TrEMBL record:
NCBIfam families: PPR. PROSITE patterns: PPR. Pfam families: PPR (PF01535), PPR_2 (PF13041). It comes from Ceratopteris richardii. It comes from the Eukaryota. GO terms for biological process: RNA modification. Keywords: Repeat. The lineage of its organism: Eukaryota, Viridiplantae, Streptophyta, Embryophyta, Tracheophyta. This is Pentatricopeptide repeat-containing protein. InterPro entries: PPR_At4g14850-like_plant (IPR046960), PPR_rpt (IPR002885), TPR-like_helical_dom_sf (IPR011990). GO terms for molecular function: RNA binding. PPR repeats lie at residues 233-267, 435-469, 535-569, 636-670, 737-771. The keyword Transcription regulation does not apply.
Amino acid sequence: MVIGSSLISMYTKLGLVHDAYKVFNSFPHRNVVLWNNMLEAVIEDSNSLPQSSFFMKMQQEGVHPDKVMYISILKACEKLGLLKEGRLIHGRIIISINEVDSVLGSTLISMYSRCGSLDDAGKVYEDLACRDLVILGAMIAAYVEEGFDQCALELFIQMLKITDRPDKGTVFYVLRACSNLKALQYVQLLHDQMIRARLESDSVLTNTLVDSYCKCEDLVDACQVFGVSKKCDVVSFGIMMAGYIQHGFNTKSLELFLKMVLTGLRPDESTYISSLKASCNINTLETNHCIHYLIVHDGWEFNPAVGKALIETYSKLKCLEESYNVFRRLLDQKVALWSAMMTSYVEQGYEHEAIGIFDRMQKELVVLDSCSLMQALKACTMLKDSGEGKIVHSIIMIHGFDEDEAFQSSVINMYLSCNKVHEGLKVFESSPQQNVVTWSVLISRYAESGCSLLAFELFNNMLQKGLQPDRVIFLSILKACTTSGTIIHGKFVHHQIIKHGLFSDVLGNALIDMYGKNRSPMEAQNVFDRLHMPNIISWTSIVAAHADGGNLHGALSSFETMQKEGMEINVVTFLCTIKACSNASVLQEGRLLHSSCLEFELHDVDAIASALINMYAKCDIVEDAYAIFNHLSNPDVVTWGSMITALVQHGREFSAFKLFNRMQAMDVNSSTAIFLCVLKACSNVGAIVQGRWVHDQILRSEYHSDSYLGNALVSMYASFGSMDEAHNVFSKLLAQDNFAWQAMISGFSKQGDAESVSNFLEQMQRSGLHPLETTYSSILACCSHSGHIEKGPFYFNQIRNVSWISAEQHFNCMIDLFGRTGNLKAANELLLSMPGNPDPVGWISLLCASNAHGNLGVGKLCFGNTIQCLPEFGGGYVFMSNLYVDSVLWKDEQALMEQRKSVEPGNKPTETYNKMNDAYHLFRIGDTGSLARHKLHASFDRINWSIERAGYVPHAWTFCKALSVVDENTHQEISQAEDAPLFLEYTTEKAN
């Protein structure tokens, strides 16, 4: 037995556990000593023996262990993680041993703790009659191992009542607990106890103490302990380096690394990883190359953890080629390295390369882990590649990750990013765990995609299922309420936030923004008043809320209060406040803000300049807006757009053309908004040549297929009457929507081409689109001007059958149609049957028809209603005067003229723009001092001569027709102008 016991001990120490087991089995009868020796072998190499059969054999042989043997068995159970067997042994201990001492008790606590049953460990602790330092130390260790650091610290405080000198093990575990809790005062207390117990020489405790100081953010004491330590090993240097990095002292960390190398210590895995991290943080590629050289020199290049750190470091330094070279040279390309390479590509925006790595992993049969699958999913999301995403999703399901919360959320997010809403919902609905995270992803994606009502419906469904929304979900749904334009939804969400007790300053800011976007500044102010500590975001949001809600003085008052509170004003705050001053009533405040921008040196910021330009433009001071623009050295495209828009809005189209040409000459890429504005300017002044040039610029730009620009081009060419060009653009549109069809129909209508109008209307309806109000107006106007009396009522009845179309303008078109055909009775009846009060347009139209057909009775009725609505309308007096003259009622005509003088309407001269020699010029009737006018007059003479030479006589019908509709002063002005007939015949009139 003695020899056998010695042989077992010898083989165990040599690591030959199987040989020890053979010796053990060679004895038919084994005593307690042999079992104890064999148990030591089991503890030494737990993987080499059939564990379950070993314990069963011990029980079958009826071995009665003593206390020493029980301790060995419990340690074996602890090492092997055999909780069930450990409980069985514990039961036998209770039966066979009267009183459990501190050694056996601490072993039981340690066994239960390591086997993951802290409850059992706690019960052992509670049942022990004597809880000495050993038991307290064991329980403290158990608490720390299981993450109950606060419990461990409380138990340590109890221990201090017994002794002020805890043992090494207790100090080690309590230091770990203090590190996690950041309990600096207890770390300092333990440090003092270590000094009194003369434990500073213990390298493990010293390293743990340094680590604790670092994690408690006391770098001074950490450096002091590290500096006085006489046994600074690689671990010590590694801990101190990590501490420096944690506090942002990356250069210090690298200096310490260099010192360690110079002292002859060889860096280990941890120190190399820390040095790479520090090098990456200070963005020094040269230092990284030096560390890489040392790694290769010391043979750490093929270490998976170091290799992974190298890959990540080169990736963050944007050296993807070197990152890939490290990856390729690794002998053992483990899945973690593949994942690191994929992560590098995804983080740097190389999603295609990340997918390529993922494909290689599958071809080389690398076992995919959760990290690689997650990175593949991220790459598909960023690429919006639903095809590859479906493949990744199927692999996730095969590997069983589909039930993981993070993967469920990421898969749903991927499908929604690819606009595959149905697939995203399918994944969500099939999920057995529809928790707050997955609901949050779905709601936030719907909100971001503009599907506000669907997001709100999901939110309601979530509440009905009894799930408690968190702050993230509330932020997402508030964003949806911001874009939905429905204040009811926002108020409901506000109520839910209060109900769930989740109101905070962050949610308060979101509520202010929501109420502001829904034009409810008072509700926004109420929320603002409830904020605990309003920050710059809060103040900016309330200023914007008042500005968006039209409460200009509220916005300015908030801005002023914000300054008094000492808040630092940023660009966004200025933008919101400037927006509030975009009204002539607060122009003075706007000028003061402009001065503040100059004071803060923000006037050169493009966003501020653009906002100031918009402000002055809306206050009708274009000159000041232009001055701001010209002051900018390099305005961005938004600022160019703001200035061009301001000019067009104020009727300065030719200045807008010059500015647009200047922008093109400076190679500033235009935007959709600028192109739309310039096209509108071309339409306004009939600048067809400029319009064609802009069209060419659009075709050369990235916006050549933009639907808005396509519609605008169709509308522009139609306004020129160039229907062939309009149709050419229309036919090339990717999607012919209502607006494109409307532009074509309106263009043909202005040309009086009733047949084309009818054909396009039929095609539009066949394509499944319904005409707009303006489309029907164009159709009826065409019927009126082309004399298609029978089609007008037909289309009008179609309109009246469509409930959502407002019929007022269409009534006016029909009144005009009846008036032109002389059916004044029908026109009058239709006018009086209009829903609500007839508008002035209808009365004027019928008055014009009465004048044309000499119907004095209807004319009087119309004139009275017209003047009641528009007292200064001069045309009404002219029409009525003509009726009195035709009826030889001179006294009535004279009285009418006297009445008109008392009204004194203000008249503006007729003016037009014409292009000459690639430049546009403004012409007014009676203006004789313009050189351009004389050139144009000469052109008219040449045209006149050509007409006469061809055998025709130029007539002044247009001139005569104009005389019949203008007031007396303008009549005299035109008559005195020698070129009036030619002017009106050959130019396009524009009434200002």
